[in-house]
């Protein structure tokens, strides 16, 4: 004999129904067949599974352990059958999502949490990139969805605008720029500029179009906006950063805006992008819908 799923299904039926007779009725088998399977199991394991000394057979201590482990096996088999059914129905095996690090992360995480709670069969991978690196990753991984500030539009892509993001030119309240009025480009060039490096690593343009780097000799390229925020707080230099990332610091006065020629902000509208052939996948459609909701797109 060898252990099989049928044996554990029989064991589970006896425990859950409370008797060999009811288990046999549930399984559509004879009571003698059910009893034979359990005896074969006990012989194979070399230990009694049921204590038959009383009127009603009950699990022994070892039988209880075997029953619990068998239930895990049955649940895993059911999970595999569910996965197979979903794949046959067209569910995606894998879904890659690429996101620009300048965008708010919380709505994305909420959407992914909902998908996780729904126990979908699809493996979802989230990639965080910056500037041109976003589209590069999108193309290299054949990702289905991209959230980005800029991209090269092509006929196979669909897009929808996300809520605008305001960017501020800021520095620490301890920095000399914090008290200067109507700062010129030449004046900014005398200080350290902080910027997030394009993850494509092929250019040294500033992260935002329309806001080129100020051309100073001292520029520190950081890997992400979390590092940039910390660098700004230390008073190391100045730089552009999305306003939602520094709300507390602005309110407390730790960071202040830089008066660059009478202005200190600009706004851009990020885009939700997806491949048209892949929008037919149920998980892709579900995630697109959740992202629209979480980012308050209408």
Descriptive account of the structure:
- Helices cover 39% and strands 20% of the residues.
- By secondary structure, the protein is an alpha/beta fold.
- It folds into three domains: 84 residues, Winged helix-like DNA-binding domain superfamily/Winged helix DNA-binding domain (Arc Repressor Mutant, subunit A); 95 residues, 3-Layer(aba) Sandwich (D-Maltodextrin-Binding Protein, domain 2); 103 residues, D-Maltodextrin-Binding Protein, domain 2.
- It has a five-stranded mixed sheet with strand order 4-3-5-13-6. Strands 7, 10, 11 and 12 form a four-stranded antiparallel sheet that branches. Strands 1-2 form a two-stranded antiparallel sheet.
- A hairpin with a 6-residue loop joins strand 1 and strand 2.
- Helix 1 packs across helix 2 and helix 1 crosses helix 4.
- The chain is elongated, with a radius of gyration of 30 Å.
Which structural class should the secondary elements be placed in? alpha/beta
Beta-strand residue fraction: 15-25%
What is the CATH top level name of the largest domain? Alpha Beta
Strand count, sense and barrel status of the largest sheet are:
5 strands, mixed
Q: How confident overall, as mean pLDDT? A: 87
CATH architecture of the largest domain: 3-Layer(aba) Sandwich
Number of discrete domains: 3
Evaluate the radius of gyration.
30 Å
Shape: elongated
